[in-house]
Amino acid sequence: MQIGYELARQVRDNLEIVYTSEYINFLKCYFRVFSVVLTQQTKPQASDSLEHKLRNVILEITSRLPHSEVLRPFVHNMLKLAMHVLTTDNEDNGLISIRIIFKLLRNYKNTLERELQPFLDFVKQVYQNFGATVCYYFDSSSGNESEIAASHRTIVHFGPQSSPEAPIPRQLNLSTRSFKIVTECPLIVVFLFQVYDHYVQTNVPILIPLMATVISIPGPQHVSPKLKNHYVELKCAQVKTVSFLTYLLRSFADYIRPHEESISKSIVNLLISCPDSVIIRKELLVATKNVLATDFRRGFFQLIDNLLEERVLVGTGQACFETLRPLAYSILAELIHHVRLDLPLSQLSQVIYLFSRNTIDLSFPLSVQTTCARLMLNLVEPIFSRRVDPISTEEVRASLGLALDAFASKFGMLKHTISQ
Which GO terms describe its biological process (predicted)? Predict the structure, then answer.
């Protein structure tokens, strides 16, 4: 095994031959060998063993092969090989395999048109198993804590029979039980649906309910430090799935309509539970904005109270606060504009307080300040019409006074800015 691993590394480190006229001879010589090693001579490993490293290097070589006409005679077998690894191997090798599959499908569209369904079936499988995967990682009664924690570290054990150079192998997760794999799937499926539209009608009706269920899974309330990485991966996978659903909104509204309220609640719950990662939260906000551009925005109307909390919109991290506030409040302004006539006075007052503060907040771009001011102007009539008794009249007066004060302060700031 050690000799095979060293030989594979030498091939990987001298891969320049594939960019020469000898590429075809390289494929004839090595591709069959790679297939035999991956399917017969080695088996998928649950730890970072030498056998795993051999398989990993071979997959890395395969992923780096140029996708030219020289490769075309081999692409059918290469796709089958990558699918075999993806469905049976561990997460590390599965991630390489899924990228191989994407490259093949992207570069050999006509050649592989009839061989897409196995991959789509795999996507359905990981979505169907998503709930069980969450339980595997986060259910304390499953007894997997030590195994899961070991998958994110390499332990060095010092003892009488060991040396500091002999680390205990890292434990590896199955590809079918990987949040990272789920994260990679939506992009590929979107591409496939764009290119091979005849696969859409048979797969979308099955995928949409599965995805709606995936994003509705809350995950753990409390996460131990050992499982923090898995928690971030969980939320990233769910956010990618939300993005996939928003892509399907316009074309497959009839299939998504039964899940309208569920999807909206899931998005808000993700905003509440999402870790303070700028990339993840930004993608979720963009997906929310895409939903608001459709009739499915109605699902958010009952969730305004949650969205009026800044920690829900942008999280609590400093980087998120500084980066995402303009986008978040632009989205919130758009939502409130659609529902302003139906909001009670208490919510309208809260909106005025929030957006009057933002109007004079110089940390926002001028465009966002203008959006906030425009929203307050649009709220004047709905607020004024809420005068039904002395108590509400007093609240109306206070809210309109707050808006007027914000406008006066803003004009003063503009006067100072223009004079400079």
Answer: DNA repair; regulation of DNA-templated transcription
